Amino acid sequence: MSSSSPAALLDVDLRPGAPPMLRVEAAGDAPSWAAEHRDALRATVAEHGSVLVRGLSLRDEAEIAAVFQRLATGLMVERESFASRRNHCDGVYSASKWPPNQQMCMHHEMSYTLDFPALMLFACLRAPAGGGATVLADSPTVLDALPTELVERFEWEGWLLTRNYNDEIGASLTQAFGTDDRMAVEDYCRANAIEFEWQSDGGLRTWQRRSAVVRHPVTGRRCWFNQIAFLNEWTLAPEVREYLVDVYGADGLPFTTRFGDGDPIGEDVIQLLNDVYQVNTVREPWQAGDLMLVDNIRTAHGREPFEGSREVLVALADAVRLVDCSPTVEVADR
């Protein structure tokens, strides 16, 4: 790294098994500090895939929103969500509501959409009593660790996400699409290469085929960029999966993933993917006031189970288009 690089201006601690960390003195005016160090922080993320900033002592939603706005080039509105979030203010959300006792598998935010965030911003207002780290994994490293034959199949076929929207589990139709107007939902689906079918009970079933491997729009590196494992039925706790199959049937699950040709993905494949993620996971427990920036294309993130109360705010930033990431499959056909 050249000494003239903006990232070289920051003394980042690189420790095995942990994300890059920058320790700073409490600035008093965190938004001004973020604006002053924006280029250096973003350069650090470009070099390492993420950075955890400790010592800013972020205090409340307004301060965090101001920091996020100074670090991003633009905040996004979430669409096609799977779990409800609280919208604190424009573009600043709570972490997804996920059972505290369950692991949230590694994923790349909105990797099933045609426009997704290049940058994720996290800030901790309240750290849990135990666990609850936002864990990270380098996607090019994960890709290199996967069996060649499996990667080649996913590159050739892509992956298929199927969803069954209802008002009983996960994000509702209105939460996912931002409207309950059928015509608006249909227009969104057509514009975003999503096949759909209305059910007799008023529910909606959708299918969308996406690339499992993309190239980073800046570096050109091949990245394992998808939510194949996170959104697959075999990642669910066994008792949860059995209950959902019993209530909704195998074809009526709220969501699951398949190979791009529609074939089911076996439990052994999902276990393999999650095992590779686990081997390549880095973690650092949250402390109240922490800030973290994550390259959403290069770096997968997840969440560990936790005890106590946990409050982490999130922003999806710097929209990038799938077509600018060298997708390996056409999104319009299935």
Helix-strand layout with pairing:
Elements: E1 12-13, E2 21-23, H1 30-48, E3 50-54, H2 61-71, E4 87-89, E5 92-94, E6 104-107, E7 115-126, E8 130-131, E9 134-138, H3 139-145, H4 148-157, E10 159-165, H5 173-177, H6 182-191, E11 195-198, E12 204-210, E13 213-215, E14 222-224, H7 238-248, E15 255-259, H8 267-279, E16 281-282, E17 291-295, E18 299-303, E19 306-307, E20 311-321
Parallel strand pairs: 2-3
Antiparallel strand pairs: 1-2, 3-17, 4-5, 5-20, 6-18, 7-17, 7-20, 8-19, 9-16, 9-18, 10-12, 10-15, 11-12, 13-14
Helix pairs in contact: 1-2
The sequence of SSEs as H and E is: EEHEHEEEEEEHHEHHEEEEHEHEEEEE
What is the terminal-to-terminal distance? 44 Å
CATH topology of the domain at 142-274: Double-stranded beta-helix
The count of DSSP E runs of length 2 or more, i.e. the number of strands, is 20
Strand content: 25-35%
Looking at the structure, what is the overall shape?
A: globular
**Level-1 CATH class name of the domain at 142-274:** Alpha Beta
Largest sheet: 8 strands, mixed
Helix content: 25-40%
- Cα radius of gyration in angstroms: 20 Å
Helical segment tally?
8
The spatial strand order of the largest sheet comes to: 1-2-3-17-7-20-5-4
CATH superfamily of the domain at 142-274: Clavaminate synthase-like
**CATH architectural arrangement of the domain at 142-274:** 4-Layer Sandwich
Taking all residues together, what is the mean pLDDT? 93
Provide the structure class.
alpha+beta
Task: Give a structural overview.
The structure is a single chain. The chain is globular. A hairpin with a 7-residue loop joins strand 1 and strand 2. With 334 residues, the chain is an alpha+beta fold. The chain is built from eight helices and 20 strands. It has a domain of 133 residues: Double-stranded beta-helix, CATH 3.60.130.10. An eight-stranded mixed β-sheet has the order 1-2-3-17-7-20-5-4, with helices on one face. Strands 6-18-9-16 form a four-stranded antiparallel β-sheet.
